Amino acid sequence: MKIGVPKEIKNNESRVGLTPAGAFELVNYGHEVYIQETAGESSGFADIDYREVGAVMLPTIEAVYAMADMIVKVKEPIASEYPLVKRNQIVFTYFHFASSEALTRAMIKSGAICIAYETVQDDEGTLPLLTPMSEVAGRMAIQQGAKHLEKPIKGRGVLLGGVPGVPPGRVLILGAGVVGVQAAKMAAGLGAHVTVLDINMKRLRYVNDVMPPHVVTEFSSVYNIKKHIKTHDLIIGAVLIPGAKAPNLITREMLKDMRAGTVLVDVAVDQGGCFETTRPTTHEDPTYIIHDIVHYCVANMPGAVPYTSTLALTNVTLPYILKLANLGWEAACSKYPDLGRGLNIVKGEVVIDEIKETFDGALV
Predict the structure, then answer these.
(1) How many domains does the chain have?
(2) Is 221 annotated as a binding residue?
(3) Domain Alanine dehydrogenase/pyridine nucleotide transhydrogenase N-terminal, which positions (predicted)?
């Protein structure tokens, strides 16, 4: 199979879909790998690194799309890429269709086979291709939140860890999944007081078992959310419903109950966000303020640490890329149900209920 890896062109997206080590494995299995020139540079991988393992470098994104049977990316195609996607071409990437009707319509029109990293799901219900980026994003959420609590950036002027004689900052985490646990770990390591809310008691028990005593858990409810937003300095939105739009847990009206300079970090922004006031931002211009509340809603947080993120991503995507390349998408998705659950749009047809429900028949 011919596998193409274009350079990411979304704002400040520095990751690349495949490392040289991944390219080596594919070439070793007899596949042809085409990489757009300089695609890996921002992640620390030079063109020569790919050439040395047998990949072919192509000068333009158009050439990569034209050559490939399967496109391997990190982020969803943006508008300028829509016309490049070919009928029957496999596109394997993070799509997050529920957050963009325009993207969904474009991929339906393309006639491509769209397999989304974020809905590949094993029999235990875990999301193996989302997990490493969720781990990165969860940890980064605390780094960025701590930074934006500083007064020059319009935050409350709170040091999360506090100092002797001064209490630490307070972090509220909505969701005890991968993002939430990694955020709690980082916040606890800084010495912050951490509250984790979730509706899944099994997850709360897990957090309670593995975290230090200054990380506390509570059942998530509107009452508890309203109570805690009044006293916490940093609030992390970490709720995920696979393939579907995230629920709005904090409304615009609730912002008025928060103290000025409170920071909201919405890690669920790719799925529409779990704050009503969420709108996607970029690393170039990461924040905005509503009712004196700082919103950090960067849609590709792991893109800021591309070396770490690219290695972590290829570690988990490569086995699936090999299955698709070796068997073809139909046989691979039939033989491996976890990969089959990644199918979102196939030759113009939406095949995942969550997307259909999100747009409530508007795609018909």
Answers:
(1) 2
(2) no
(3) 4-137
